[in-house]
């Protein structure tokens, strides 16, 4: 009976060594990622396509979720990485900025604000001031 368990343990150890090798060479593995809805709409499709062309042996599992859940799932080991707004709310996560995104107001040529070239948020009391938001890789 002990021999049976020893063989099972050796088989699992060999499988683990193969998995580490495959991930290290990015030849075969699974990558679990998530994105907030803001970035899913325009970022995830092109990113997934490019990633698949570069690493065809890696299977992507892509999820869309709120940032709080995304951060919790990364901390719990349910996800490998996420794309969300910077900075992360959780102190136990590290982030890497991907790009800065600036919000803009779009108006027609005939609109009274069409010729304006200065920042708008101080001139029009539509919304409270909004800082630029940065996307981050968690």
Label the overall shape. elongated
* CATH overall fold name: D-Maltodextrin-Binding Protein, domain 2
Strand content: 15-25%
Gyration radius (Cα, Å) is 22 Å
> Which structural class fits the helix and strand makeup?
alpha/beta
Oligomer: single chain
Helix/strand order: HEHEHEEE
Would you report the number of β strands? 5
CATH superfamily: Periplasmic binding protein-like II
- Which CATH class applies here? Alpha Beta
Helix content: 25-40%
Report how far the terminal alpha carbons are from each other: 45 Å
Domain count: the total is: 1
What order do the strands of the largest sheet run in, or round the barrel if closed?
2-1-3-5-4
Please tag this protein with its features:
138 residues, five-stranded mixed beta sheet, elongated, D-Maltodextrin-Binding Protein, domain 2, alpha/beta
Topology:
Elements (H helix, E strand, L loop, with lengths): L1 H24 L3 E7 L1 H18 L3 E7 L2 H9 L5 E6 L9 E6 L31 E5 L1
Parallel strand pairs: 1-2, 1-3
Antiparallel strand pairs: 3-5, 4-5
Q: Nutshell version of this structure?
A:
This protein is an alpha/beta fold. It has helices spanning about 1-25, 35-55, 65-75, and strands at about 30-35, 60-65, 80-85, 95-100, 135.
Q: Could you characterize what this model shows?
A:
- The chain is α/β, with parallel strands linked by helices.
- The protein has one domain: D-Maltodextrin-Binding Protein, domain 2 (3-Layer(aba) Sandwich).
- Helix content is 37%, strand content 22%.
- A five-stranded mixed sheet has the order 2-1-3-5-4.
- The chain is elongated and about 85 Å long.
- The model has no long low-confidence stretch (mean pLDDT 76).
């Amino acid at each position: 009976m002990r021999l049976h368990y020893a063989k099972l343990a050796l088989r699992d150890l060999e499988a683990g060594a193969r998995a580490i090798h495959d991930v290290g060479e990015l030849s075969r593995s699974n990558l679990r990622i998530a994105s907030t809805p803001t970035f899913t709409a325009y970022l995830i499709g092109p990113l997934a396509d490019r990633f698949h062309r570069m690493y065809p042996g890696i299977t992507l599992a892509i999820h869309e979720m709120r940032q709080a859940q995304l951060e919790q799932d990364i901390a719990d080991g349910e996800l490998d990485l996420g794309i969300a707004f910077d900075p992360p709310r959780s102190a136990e996560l590290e982030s890497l900025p991907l790009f800065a995104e600036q919000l803009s107001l779009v108006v027609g040529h005939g609109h009274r604000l069409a010729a304006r070239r200065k920042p708008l948020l101080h001139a029009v009391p539509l919304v409270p001031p909004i800082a630029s938001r940065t996307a981050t890789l968690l």
